[in-house]
Structure prediction request, 181 residues.
Amino acid sequence: MPPSSRKFRRSTRRSRLGAWWLLWRVPTLLLVVMALWWFLFRPIAQEQGWVEVTTSFAICAEPGPRAQGCVVDGDTVVVGFGGEQRRIRLTGFDTPEFDGACEAERELARVARARLHRWLNRGAFEWNGADDPPRDRYGRELRKVRRVAPNGSREYLAETMIAADLASKSGWGAERIDWCD
Prediction:
């Protein structure tokens, strides 16, 4: 083979290797940059969208002074009256139901509702979702709830209810509790 054609073949081979080398390097570098951005800026994005709530809450369907909102059960509240009512499902936990399978579950549902009522009326708190929160299949707003202390510590409602054995975790991978045991 003449020397000039060998030289030509080598340069073509090198250019193909160079193209292949760039072909996987650029997407890999792009993935690394995207992963770093996600890990570094996700906490900032999560902090946005929290709204302070100073609403007072009553127990729904109980006589008494009219409040700005009421507690339906251990994980649902209603805000506003008349045409402006908004049903809000508080997320991160699931409480027993009033129409539960046994009397023990129904009693725990009443206790959970009372505990939620006390927690909400303890003072200002925050919920996420700003003006456009996600909704469940029933049209209820879905919101996480927390209270920020003056020292900066955060008390999440879900953790409080679960620690009091009045709720179970909800969401992906959470086990349902049989409240009748």
About this structure: The mean pLDDT is 81.
